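To whoever is covering the structure queue this week,

Two jobs came back overnight. Logging them here so there's a record in the thread.

Job A:
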Amino acid sequence: MRKIIASLFISLDGVVEAPDQWHFPYFNDEMGAAVDTTLGRADTLLLGRKTYDGFAGAWPEREAAGGEDAGFAKKLGDARKVVVSGQDLSFTWRNSERLEGGLVDGVAALKREPGGDIAMSGSVSVVRELLAQGLLDELHLLVHPIALCKGMRLFEEGEATMPLRLLSSTTFRTGVLHLVYAPAESPGDATYDDAKAHLPQDEA
């Protein structure tokens, strides 16, 4: 079974909207390596419509320009790109197709196909739904040391609780935290009385 790995730039207060407007001051070689480990090495990208449109409007031109990021742009162009959309789409970026069969059934079928990991970038509404449906295997959060105080957050008020398990954590020189989570079982119920046993006890 293939794994789906989502990677998101996120602020300290949980904002994921428009990272192109705030995350570049924190981008360094460590973050570049983290992005390449997920997006750059995947043979399939799963993208929401808005994220795909943003990628398709930028990366083909960067590949053609032959600049410093042309190699990474070529990796994205060569990868299979599966787009989540309820509308029929026409594509100009190579190796692009629409997800067939609806989000849940379509993604489940995609995971059963042969191949390597399936990477996601952005596509917040899709990430939320896949987490809720138990179809997302890893959530990579690149937590930036900035509070934006406005904008769309990864998890909105009123959503169902989603327990997660921390797989790894890395601190970059910029102060960005690279946190890798996987879905987890509910931790169960507990009260303050349960927590008291773990409080420091007087030695007197």
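Job B:
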Amino acid sequence: MITPAVLQVAATPTTPALALRPWSLEDAAPLVEAFRDAGLRRWTSHTAENEAEGTQWVRSQQQSWTAGDRFSFAVLEAQPGGLCGQLLAGVVLKGVAAGEPAAEVGYWTAAHARGKGVASRAVEALTGWAFDTFAAGGLERLELLHQVDNRASCRVAQKSRYDFHRMLPAAPPSFPQAGHLHVRRISP
């Protein structure tokens, strides 16, 4: 079992420090609020309409940590003294399995946090943690997928040093349009 981790990302001159931690039940209401954004709903296949659904979603993320196959983090604005502020985004490492060379990274950003470098910084932190944690088990590369018309996600991939690998055909219903596959390999 992988011990739940808290990842810290330092502030920059223009962006706040970030704390990435496993989801907790206190995140259910802010999660529902984030998912009310039509822009976010356009790009994600999972939403929570109310606090009960938000709680259910958080519990499923917690169960995935226990199962060891999906590691989802809430991305929050870090506050002094180790406290966490407002929910900004979510990042996830999925498809992790011993002996498998690849896993997938996913992410989303709340409307109020877009355009501030939150997603790329969170993806970078998740990437480092993934390679540090799972390379000994065979993890060699991470894959990042997005729909071809999601230009913001393409910029996040590029800023996070994920190279464009190839075009992907549409795979409805979860991937209704063609997409990009970006890859980042572990550094030797």
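Note for Job B: The longest helix spans residues 51-67.

Please reply-all if you pick these up so we don't duplicate work.
Q.
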